[in-house]
């Protein structure tokens, strides 16, 4: 039942009751009060009102959703980085993208110039979750169209415009500021393979992008190079892609395959090159050289290797033990160069390290000391004994006649090498000492020996009376000339000519008359011999009679010899007879 409305006392009062004549502090008179309502009317029930209306739920819900969206947007906000580039050509704020493998992972938010005005600073916002890829090994560069000797890249940016590329690396310390690369890296961390470091004295014709070959197949490339900390060499970093990195072992040999290798050998001129590309931009090749040493194991990443100047140098066996010796030569060493080989019966065991010129004041002579370096490990079963100690094999060989000698390596080039060999006829000598070096005695070179013999022969010729012999020879020639031009010799020649004419006539007569008769006589003699041969043939009676007569004659001769022997022993038998006493 609805509550009855209660009239407002202020509205129900007559105007007189509100008259200002009545004092405000005094109650109105009783006659002025309204009459009491009747007791049978319904009474109103007052219901308490709630503190929060349901209408406020809608804005509250909207506030919660907006806060959640703001928190989600803030929490999903990626890291902001700063990249320093030399220039900002083609880059635009809020438009240039940051990509990895053509996938957008961020955007450039601002571009400014550095305070020192040397480069530009590019700020970019990346997607959430990129923090673990922002380390000190991460690299950034601007992808643009590029044309090099080995490849053409970035052509897609001709239409879409340049973008910032990233090569993420998870290992390393976290960073937010980077220095961008001037050129894109040839190899990214996502490409499988291994990096190796090659140590060389100089870079040569190698450059970034130079190919790496294995048996004329390109398996990698040069990615960077830098000077060593001591400025005495160059470290060249190469990348060998998968699966060819398994071919690189701990004892693999790398060599510079750049350009064209032209060599003059005893077989003629040899020209070698790996490819046309290596001629243009250089190249590196490697091979696992087969030697008597054990095969190496798989090389780890970033393994360092020496870079040899040529394949010939790389094919030589490496030896760690080296011993230096000194040799003194008195003759000319023209053609002997530093690096010339030291040979023992055609096998290289060392090389020449230094060549000097010394004056010996005691003997007033000029000597040429040549410092050589030997590798004893090249000699199988050679004892490892220090120079000068008991059992030094070199000292024993010198006592047996080991000597150093210069020999020509090629008659065309005129180059020399040091030959160590036994010379049993050489004068006795022992290994000497010069400071801390052992001195191996030497013998003259073959050409010097020939020159010495020629000089000795010329010295002997100088002692001959050449002038007197010449005078005598001139007199003899003059006398011979007088004889040849004399009248007597002319007459003798005329008479000799006449005699030869007569002899020619006699010979003609012999040919025409005597020779036919002589031929007939020879035929008769041949017939006579043939008849005699038939008479004394083995199957004739005369042959048997002659044989019997010869037998009897032999028996008679034997009896006569026995009789002579008997008479020699018993001469009295001539008087007394045989057997007489």
Helix content: 25-40%
Percentage of β-strand residues: 25-35%
**Uncertain runs with pLDDT below 50, 5 residues or more?**
1-6, 8-22
Q: Using the alpha-carbon principal axes, give the shape.
A: elongated
Q: What's the pLDDT, averaged over the residues?
A: 78
Instruction: Determine the N-to-C terminus distance.
Output: 214 Å
**Count the strands?**
27
Structural class: alpha+beta
Biggest beta sheet attributes = 9 strands, mixed
Compute the gyration radius: what is it? 62 Å
**Number of helical stretches of at least 4 residues:** 11
Oligomerization status of the protein chains = single chain
What would the keywords be for this entry?
581 residues, alpha+beta, nine-stranded mixed sheet, 27 strands, disordered N terminus
How is this structure best described in words?
The chain has 581 residues and is of the alpha+beta class. It contains eleven helices and 27 strands. Among the domains are: 104 residues, no CATH class; 123 residues, no CATH class; 124 residues, no CATH class. A hairpin with a 6-residue loop joins strand 12 and strand 13. The longest helix is centred in the C-terminal third of the chain and has 49 residues. The radius of gyration is 62 Å and the shape is elongated. The N terminus is likely disordered.
């Amino acid at each position: 039942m609805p509550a009855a409305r209660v009239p407002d006392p202020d509205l129900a009062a007559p105007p007189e009751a509100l008259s200002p004549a009545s004092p405000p502090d005094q109650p109105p008179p009783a006659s002025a009060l309204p009459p009491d309502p009747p007791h049978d009317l319904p009474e109103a029930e007052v219901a308490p009102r709630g503190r929060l209306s349901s209408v406020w739920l809608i804005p509250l819900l909207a506030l919660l959703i907006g806060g959640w969206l703001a928190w989600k947007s803030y929490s999903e906000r990626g890291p902001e980085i700063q990249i320093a580039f030399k220039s900002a050509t083609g880059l635009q704020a809020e438009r240039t993208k940051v990509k990895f493998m053509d996938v957008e992972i961020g955007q450039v938010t601002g571009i400014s110039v550095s305070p020192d005005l040397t480069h530009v600073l590019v700020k970019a916002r990346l997607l959430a979750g990129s923090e673990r890829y922002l380390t000190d090994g991460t690299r950034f560069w601007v992808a643009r169209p590029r044309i090099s000797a080995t490849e053409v890249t970035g052509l897609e940016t001709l239409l879409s415009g340049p973008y910032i590329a990233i090569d993420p690396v998870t290992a390393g310390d976290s960073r937010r500021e980077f220095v961008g690369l001037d050129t894109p890296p040839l190899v990214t961390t996502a490409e499988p393979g291994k990096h190796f470091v090659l140590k060389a004295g100089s870079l040569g014709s190698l450059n970034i992008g130079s190919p790496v070959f294995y048996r004329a197949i390109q398996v990698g490339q040069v990615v960077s190079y830098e000077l060593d900390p001591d400025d005495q060499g160059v470290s060249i970093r190469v990348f060998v892609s998968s699966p060819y990195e398994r071919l690189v072992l701990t004892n693999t040999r790398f060599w510079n395959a750049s350009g064209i290798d032209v060599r003059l050998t005893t077989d003629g001129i040899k020209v070698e090159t790996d490819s046309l590309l290596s001629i243009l931009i250089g190249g590196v090749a490697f091979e696992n050289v087969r030697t008597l040493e054990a095969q190496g194991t798989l090389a780890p990443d970033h393994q360092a290797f020496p870079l040899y100047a040529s394949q010939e140098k790389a094919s030589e066996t490496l030896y760690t033990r080296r011993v230096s010796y000194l040799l003194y030569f008195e003759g000319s060493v023209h053609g002997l160069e530093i690096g010339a080989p030291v040979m023992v019966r055609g096998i290289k065991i060392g090389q020449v390290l230094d060549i000097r010129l010394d004056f010996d004041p005691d003997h007033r002579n000029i000597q040429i000391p040549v410092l050589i370096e030997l590798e004893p490990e090249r000699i199988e079963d050679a004892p490892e004994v220090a120079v000068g100690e008991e059992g030094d094999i070199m000292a024993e060989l010198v006592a047996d006649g080991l000597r150093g000698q210069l020999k020509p390596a090629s008659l065309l080039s005129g180059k020399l090498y040091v030959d160590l060999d036994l010379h049993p006829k050489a004068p006795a000598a022992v290994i000497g000492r010069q400071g801390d070096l052992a001195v191996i005695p030497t013998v003259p070179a073959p050409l010097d020996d020939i020159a010495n013999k020629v000089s000795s022969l010329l010295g002997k010729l100088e002692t001959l009376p050449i002038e007197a012999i010449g005078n005598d020879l001139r007199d003899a020639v003059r006398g011979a000339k007088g004889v040849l031009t004399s009248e007597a010799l002319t007459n003798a020649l005329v008479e000799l000519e006449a005699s030869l004419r007569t002899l020619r006539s006699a010979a003609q007569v012999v040919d025409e008359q005597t020779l036919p008769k002589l031929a007939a006589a020879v035929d008769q003699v041949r017939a006579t011999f043939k008849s005699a041969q038939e008479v004394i043939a083995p199957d004739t009676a005369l042959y048997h009679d002659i044989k019997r007569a010869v037998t009897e004659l032999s028996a008679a001769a034997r009896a006569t010899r026995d009789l002579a022997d008997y008479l020699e022993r018993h001469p009295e038998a001539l008087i007394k007879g045989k057997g007489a006493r």
